[in-house]
């Protein structure tokens, strides 16, 4: 059976107040500015009418999809990293109280926050989702920067340790295309 070409647009959710205040996510909603930015971004996002649309289960991703006028199915594999004990905490406070652990987590893809998930674990679930994605022409996924990093590294078959060299801003988009040679990074239009 021949694989059809699939174009996947991965969009990072709009910014939240937690992001602006330097806190680890805690299923935060979009704030007024995030909603405004997402509504403005709608004109830039080309959404083919036959595209499958998925969202992370997180509130900020679901609200971003709604602001983009997209009806999305929830995909648990697109969930943000589980931050364990750091959930909702300010990064500055963690740096004061647990600097060695924060340093390890921010440089080692196998290190996890206490009770949380490592980047390597996120990468495994994202790779499985990508590899099991239906053969359809177009897919849009509203998700988190860490998930987009994992997807990009999977497509490039790059070492996980390079995740710290990829910055994904709110409402940024990357495109991947799958064909008979696998997933490849494709410049977003």
From TrEMBL:
Q: Which SUPFAM superfamilies match?
A: Phosphoglycerate mutase-like (SSF53254)
The UniProt entry, under Pfam families, shows:
His_Phos_1
What's the protein name? Histidine phosphatase family protein
Top-level taxonomy: Bacteria, Pseudomonadati, Pseudomonadota, Betaproteobacteria, Burkholderiales
């Amino acid at each position: 059976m021949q694989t059809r070409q699939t174009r996947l647009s991965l969009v990072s959710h709009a910014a939240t107040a937690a992001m602006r205040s330097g806190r680890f996510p805690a299923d935060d909603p979009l704030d007024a500015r995030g909603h405004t930015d997402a509504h403005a971004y709608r004109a830039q996002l080309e959404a083919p009418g036959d595209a499958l649309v998925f969202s992370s289960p997180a509130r900020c991703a679901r609200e971003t999809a709604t602001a983009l006028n997209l009806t999305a199915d929830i995909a648990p594999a697109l969930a943000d990293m589980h931050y364990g004990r750091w959930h909702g905490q300010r990064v500055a406070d963690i740096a004061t109280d647990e600097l060695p652990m924060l340093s390890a987590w921010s440089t080692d893809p196998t290190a996890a926050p206490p009770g949380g998930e490592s980047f390597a674990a996120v990468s495994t679930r994202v790779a499985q989702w990508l590899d099991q994605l239906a053969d359809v022409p177009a897919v849009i996924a509203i998700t988190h920067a860490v998930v987009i990093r994992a997807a990009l590294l999977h497509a490039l078959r790059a070492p996980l340790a390079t995740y710290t060299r990829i910055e994904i801003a709110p409402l940024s988009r990357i495109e991947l295309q799958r064909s008979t040679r696998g997933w490849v990074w494709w410049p977003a239009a």
